[in-house]
Structures are given as structure tokens and as C-alpha cells.
Amino acid sequence: MRRPLALAILAVLLPVLTGCGLRSGAAVSESGWTDKVDQTLGAAISSLGTTEVVLKNQANGHLTRSYVVVAVRDSQRTLAKEVQTFGSKQPPASKVADKRTAMRALGHALAVLDSASNAASGADIAARRTALLEVERTYQELSTLQTRLTGGGG
Amino acid sequence: MKKLLSLALGILTAIGGFVDIGDLVVNAQVGARFDLSMGLVVAVGVLGICVFAEMSGRVAVCSKRPTFDLVRERLGPRMGLLNLVASLIVTALTFVAEIGGVALALALISSVNPLLIVPLVGLMVWLVLWRAKFSLMENVLGLLGLALIVFAVALWKLGPDWGDLGHQMFTAAKPGDETWTTYAYYAVALFGAAMTPYEVFFFSSGGVEEGWEEKDLSTMRANVFVGFPLGGLLSLAIAGCASTLFGPLGVDVASLSQVALPVGVALGKIGLAVVLVGFVAATFGAACETGLSTGYSLGQYFGWQWGKYVKPGGATRFHLVLVVATFLAVGILMTGVDPILVTEASVVGSAVALPLTYFPILVVANDKDYMGEHINGPLANALGTVYLVLVVLAAVAALPLLVITGMGS
């Protein structure tokens, strides 16, 4: 009775553990690197895009303050996680400069989201407007960078 | 008149209770990335859950006994144990995800850190499981879950190109920047979210708890064949909202706050308040259902006294399982694990466990000793067999796809 059960559990766990092992590998091929850049910059664009919609609708009075605070915080957390993973990846030798550029842009995106989070939770309408403009500008910059580094529309 | 009201109530609670954290998250993720190109997967999944829920409801009516009890008796303890382990792991994982979902939803209302809310949610879920009447729990949470209809209103207000949405639904084309493996991964996840095993166990065990008889068959079928598909339409509305708002911006859905955003944009603070009530009700209801399902499955397999119609003192082991499961779920969430990640894992896990869950139901529903004149007909068997092939394919593909796509990233 125990053997089939143990085999079934092993059959479920093995691919999952193998998958975890595969995902934590450090060596990245050139195409794998491009995919990773695409994914991470995509996550940044996604977080900034969400924050842009949230701030615009906060300005229109469509969203509650509690919701806005959590939504912007969620965007920050999502991006921070992606940046952390990206930072630990070793690029191919020809892409080291690209990684530096991407990391700089991602650091800026995190700082912009941090300012947006502070502005969204405060009562200063001018600060919120400034934060929104900065989010919009960074969204555009990252979209351009994504196209440049991945050679596509992302 | 009373029967009609009970029928309407059953259908409404089936609609409101259909959507859980897995449906909320996966439908929004898929909508944002693939538009409505996976609408047919939702339709196939909903038909599948209808087929097997009706079958297990019929088994409960005819045998007056719950599914696990019959599976163990009919297929032997080994097969029963395999069935128990597979569905218990997935149900427990879903229980963790649902409690996390309630905490995330309450955090959107209060802006308090979800980690601080999790223990409170665990306590509330356990209190409801311990003290609240089964029908009260099912009806109140199911009806409040109807608040999620606000997604359909929001979709209409967002004003999508309806022709385009219809075209996407029936062409199943993937966007150019996505790979077929990612597409397949999300299709399997969506299928797993629609056919979550606990729904069938909860449905049939609930039938035994409520003492369904042959005269209740028509009500049960109406709940399944009207309520579930309407619940499936809610899933499509969630995907449609995400597609309309997020698709053009290239935004991926990674949090529950994003799932609610289209409603806030379309309907303002009132819409946002309604959708958050819907989130809390849907996830809290599903947390109660999954929590009970862990107790049901163990109690029924080992032959303990089980159920909410028995006083806690008369079903101590059943209630002990509920307490332990709630403690474990809260403990896991308190480690800081992302409930959305747990949700994604639980829907893929569901896909893996599907054959072990649904094959025994098909076998029992074909046993004349249990079913008498209500044994499966040719249509139920044909559909059941087709779905068995589908769930085996989904189960085989789920883990390799999860690994290859890095959880769909």
C-alpha cells in the first residue's frame, strides 16, 4: 500500500524540485538573457502602468485612499522582487553593459514608485500630480529601453 | 412558491459561490495577457465541472453516502488513499490560498498589512466552521458573492469592442509576444481553476449533510446547470475587464488589487466597494468550503463521524482536522509566502490531481448497486469519458509546463 503512494508523491515532487533547481541556475545563454531582460523590464512597465492608472483614477476621485495605498505598494513589491532576481543573474560577456543600463533604469523605476507611494498616501495634490507625470515619463522610457535591449516590441 | 424560492436561492448561491481566489486571479491574469482567447477553455472547464458535480450530486442522492466513503468501498483502500492524498494536498493548498485571499481583500479595504489580518481571518473561518449553520454559511456567503456581478457591469461601462471580444473567444489565437508553451500553461491553469476538485467534494458532501432525496434531484441539477454556467460568465467578465483595461498598457496581473482596478476605473468608489465585498465573500466562502472539504475527505475515508449537522462534541476528530488545517494554513501564510503564488500553485496542483479525483466518481456513478435507476446514462458516460481524457492530458502537461515556463512568466 505504501509503495504506490510513495511513487505518486515522488512523481509529483521530482519535477517541481527539478524545476526549482533549473530556475536558480546562474549561467544564462544570450537568448535566455534577452528573455530575462524582456520579462524584467516588462514587469517594470506593468508596475508603472498599473500605478499610472491608479494615480489617474485617484485624481478623478474614483478610488479610495486605502485601495490606492495598497495598489501602489503591491506594484512596488512586485517590481522589487523582479529586480532582486534580475540583479542576481549573470549576463553573457557581451551583455554586461546592457545589464548595467537595465539595472540603472530599474533602480530609477523603483525610486519613482517609492515617490508615487508617498504621494498617494499623502494629501498634497501637487505632489500626486508630479508623481503621476514622473510615472508616465518613466513608463515611456522603459518601453523604449525594452525595445532597444530586446530588439522587439516586448 | 416555496420550492421556486428555494430553487432561485440555490441557483443564486451557486453563481455567487462559483468564483474563488483561483478564478479571480487566473482569469484576470489570462485576460490581461491573452485577451479573451481562452474563453473556450473557461467554457470547457465549466461544462466539465457541471458534468462531474451533477454526477457526484446524483451519487449523494442515490446512496445517501459521500464520495470518499464510496470510493474507498468500491475501489479499495489503496485507490481510495491515492484519491485522498491527491485531493487533500490540493484542497489544503487551496484552503491556504483562500485564507490569504480574504486577508488580501480586507487589506484593500483597510490598508493594513495582510500578515496582520491573516490570524484574524483564520479565527473567523474556524468560528464559522465550528458554530455557523451549514445552510446559513452557504446562503449568506453565496449571495454576498453575487456582488462580483459588478465585473459584468464594469465590462459594459469600460465599453470594449464587443465584436472583437467575441472574435477572440472563438479564434483561440495567442498574442504575438507570447509563446505556445505559456499559452498552454495558462490554459491548463484556467482549466484547473474551473474544475477545482474541492468543489465536487463539497457539493456532494453538502448534499449528504442537507439530506438530499430523489425529489431534490431537479433542484440539484438546476443549481449545477444554471448556476455554474452563470458563475462561469462571471469568470469571463473578470477576464474581459482585465483585457480591456490592461491589455493595451502591457500590464500583467500579479496582485488582487489589480483584479479590482477595472471596476474602480469603470464604476468609481461604489463599484470598488461592491467588488471588495464580493472578493471577501467569495474568498471567505471558498475558505469555509475548502476547510470543510479537508475534514470531509479525511472523515469519510477513515469512517469518522463528520459534518456540520453533527454537534462538534459528536464529531471531535472531524472538528480537530478543521482546527489543525486552519492552524497550518495560518502558519504557512505567516511565513510571508505570497498568497497569489500559492493560488497559482493550487490551480496547477488541481490540474495534476484531477484524474485521481474524477475517475472514481465516474466509476461509482456507473455502479448499479449504489445508483439504482439513476445510474449514468450514455450522455453522462460519453461526457465523463471525454473529460477524463482531457483531465489526464491536463494532469500530464501541468508540471512540465510549470517548469518550462517558470510558472508562466
From TrEMBL, chain A:
Signal peptide: 1-26
Keyword set, alphabetical order: Signal
PROSITE patterns, per database record: PROKAR_LIPOPROTEIN
Keyword Signal on entry: yes
Protein name: Uncharacterized protein
TrEMBL record, chain B:
GO CC terms in record: plasma membrane
Keywords for the protein's UniProt record, in alphabetical order: Membrane, Transmembrane, Transmembrane helix, Transport
Pfam families the record matches: Nramp
One MF term in the entry's GO annotations: cadmium ion transmembrane transporter activity
GO biological process: one example: iron ion transmembrane transport
Membrane topology, as annotated: Multi-pass membrane protein
InterPro entries: NRAMP_fam
Taxonomy, superkingdom: Bacteria
Transmembrane stretches, start-end: 38-61, 81-109, 115-132, 139-159, 183-203, 224-246, 266-288, 318-341, 347-365, 386-407
Subcellular location: Membrane
Protein name: Divalent metal cation transporter
